Amino acid sequence: MRQRLGRVRLADGTTVAYASAGAGRPLVYVMGWLSHLELSWESAAERGFYEALSRGARLVRYDRAGCGLSAGPARTPSLAYELEQLDAVTATIGEPFDLMGTSMGAPVAVAWAATRPETVRRLVLYGGWVRGAELATESVRENVLGLIEAHWGLGSNVLTDIFAPDADRAMRAEHGRYQRACSSAATARALLALSYDLDVSPHLPHVTAPTLVVHRTGDRAAPVAQARALAEGITNAEPALLPGRSHLPYAGDHDQLVRVVRRFLGLPVARRRADGLTARQREVAELISHGCTNREIAARLGIDERSAEGHVERIRLRLGFRSRAQIAAWFTAQWGISPPDPAPGGGPR
């Protein structure tokens, strides 16, 4: 799957970059705190989540002003400015769409659905909140903002530990670098301050679109009480509480999250095939067929090497094979995909 990049211009002259992937009914995705359309597409874990989400749909994402491929903001971040950017991006679609907001994008999506109900078919809120001031105590919020301002490197690492506590060391290091590549320290601080200031409680009664509120029960960045407040405040909202601690949607068991979201949106949900492999195990089998080592599989999928080794062993036992070569041959025979030509020097690419 490829993503196609485009740009829109706001009234103040700021350009906002957006990306489309897949084909079908549009699903507009309001990103969390920081984003980078190109770097996120290069991340195996994050891209895998977006591709799984967008099969049979057209996924539209964008970098808010000051992040990733979008120009720096011309004014202080605010909910009104967030809605202005979303308006410019959705103007390129020209039809009603499904809307999904994650993390900071969730309250933004709530405000949009409440004020533009005619545009939203279905609304999905993941890892969101009603009142940002209730995410942490005032002293904690001030300390985090101060840390970002004083030492963006350390601040990004601390926030990564909060956002993805179950990720291995390599993935945490990668996400810390990713956050720093997304924006400057000043922009990161300003956007996080906006997250804490957001209060969409007045908008909840005006959301009329069918709504799914999905949240991981152990989320350390957004307490599950905020998900309950969203579900209780929106008429006929459907709550879905999933196990896990990761705030990042593509960390942890993202397959389960994707299935819940796709089922709500009326998109086909992948089931276990007759071969008995899970979706993740088929991904691992494909990488084995391409000659990847356990370390390379772990890097591609954003998991630790021991987890990759466990997947390989379970695949071998499930299929009754004795070697990786048998797994590779089976996958090629099943799916008609041949391994790539060996890289110079005889090793896998």
TrEMBL record:
It comes from the Bacteria. CDD domains: LuxR_C_like. Signal peptide: none annotated. Residues 270-335 form the HTH luxR-type domain. One of its GO terms (biological process) is regulation of DNA-templated transcription. GO terms for molecular function: catalytic activity; DNA binding. SUPFAM superfamilies: alpha/beta-Hydrolases, C-terminal effector domain of the bipartite response regulators. This is Pimeloyl-ACP methyl ester carboxylesterase. It comes from Paractinoplanes brasiliensis.
